[in-house]
Design a protein that fits this description.
single chain; 366 residues; alpha/beta; Rossmann fold; 2 domains; seven-stranded mixed beta sheet; six-stranded parallel beta sheet; 18 strands; 25% strand
């Protein structure tokens, strides 16, 4: 079928809105008309080839929309359902069977190979050239996307569908780092490095858990102000003061029980570990360019400190996304305050605004 999509053809160059041909759904696939799609830092990382990926390609992995068609083997979703699209997983490997789909052993093939698992393309341009798709099992910077039944999450029809796409990745990543991966008890001290949409979702989740203090570190005063409005108790401008020293002052020289590192910047990862109390845990969430490394003080780590990688918030999306929606209904998780809408045709402006701090979570409407 004919669709339109934002296509990346060259590294570090603007997206182009183009007409493409999208393949029909296979037996286990779902065709979704996209209503809204969030912009995630990961999309830009791949566009810029900080993580190598074949081009031309359609990115986008925080789609929400309405199901239009389903393959004959699909049982959990029907045409007309409202859905959020999330990352893909095989459902059969050791990790998936243990309830850890974000650590699926087939994650690379299913999410960032540029094709279906069997190597088939799903997209072609008007000249018949192959365009890489299936990004995180969807490629939703488009009017329509193909997804696998496993990475489609049905949501209630009475919630604003265009808002819900970021729950599929960025928002579930930040919230899940707290609620699923670290699971701090009420009264635990938490420090969050990076007050973008992922970090602020972690702030919201830490408030739900009853953490104290909730310390937020960033370089932008406006983001730090918003962090306080969303449940943070203390802020640190990492560009103005020594962040680790400030955190130790706030925590009576003990350090934080938990830290969440959302920037992917090696020196900030080091700070997130150094800011921990004895026995503390650092959840590393931020994506970094391929090959990025961080040096740690071995003797500090020996004091019971743990560094834990967290992918997609350690979530089972079919369970966690509805839970976040319920928190939102109850007024406990106002992630909509982070969102600004753009037409898909303005995707390059959305990226520019995001990179210069003008918007926390851009959501495009095709």
């Amino acid at each position: 079928m004919k669709i339109h999509a934002a296509v990346s053809r060259q590294s570090k160059q603007p997206f182009n809105l183009e007409a493409l041909e999208l393949d029909d759904p296979l037996d286990n696939e779902v065709l979704v008309r996209i209503v809204g799609v969030g912009l995630c830092h990961t999309d830009v990382v791949f566009r810029d080839q900080a993580v190598p990926h074949p081009l031309p390609a359609v990115y986008g992995h925080e789609g929400s929309g309405v199901v239009e068609r389903v393959g004959k083997a699909v049982t959990k979703i029907a045409p007309g359902d409202h859905v959020v699209l999330t990352f893909s997983s095989c459902g059969q490997c050791k990790s998936c069977l243990q309830g850890k789909p974000s650590y699926c052993l087939e994650f690379g093939k299913l999410n960032v190979s540029g094709s279906r698992p069997n190597g088939e393309a799903t997209l072609k341009d008007e000249s018949g050239e192959r365009v890489c798709g299936c990004f995180f099992g969807q490629s939703s910077f488009a009017s329509h996307a193909l997804a696998h039944e496993r990475n489609v999450v049905k949501i209630p029809r009475d919630v604003p569908l265009e808002l819900m796409g970021p729950l599929g990745c960025g928002i579930q990543t930040g919230a899940g780092a707290i609620l699923n991966a670290l699971q701090p008890k009420a009264g635990s001290s938490v420090v969050i490095f990076g007050a973008g949409s992922v970090g602020l979702a972690a702030v919201l989740a830490a408030a739900i858990r009853g953490c104290y203090p909730i310390i937020v570190v960033d370089l932008q005063p406006s983001r730090l102000e918003l962090a306080i409005e969303l449940g943070g108790t203390h802020t640190v401008n990492g560009g103005a003061v020594d962040a680790v020293a400030a955190i130790r002052t706030i925590t009576n020289e003990q350090g934080a029980d938990f830290s969440v590192e959302c920037t992917g910047v090696p020196k900030v990862v080091r700070q997130a570990v150094d800011a921990l109390a004895i026995g503390g845990v650092c959840g590393v969430v931020g994506a970094a360019p391929a090959g990025a490394e961080v040096a740690l003080d071995i003797n500090s780590v020996l004091m019971g400190r743990t560094v834990k990688g967290v992918m997609e918030g350690d979530s089972i999306p079919e369970l966690f996304i509805p839970q976040l929606i319920e928190f939102w209904r109850q007024g406990k998780f106002p992630f909509d305050r982070l969102i600004k809408f753009y037409p898909l045709a303005d995707i390059n402006k959305a990226i520019d605004d995001s990179e210069h701090g003008g918007v926390l979570k851009a959501v495009m409407r095709p």
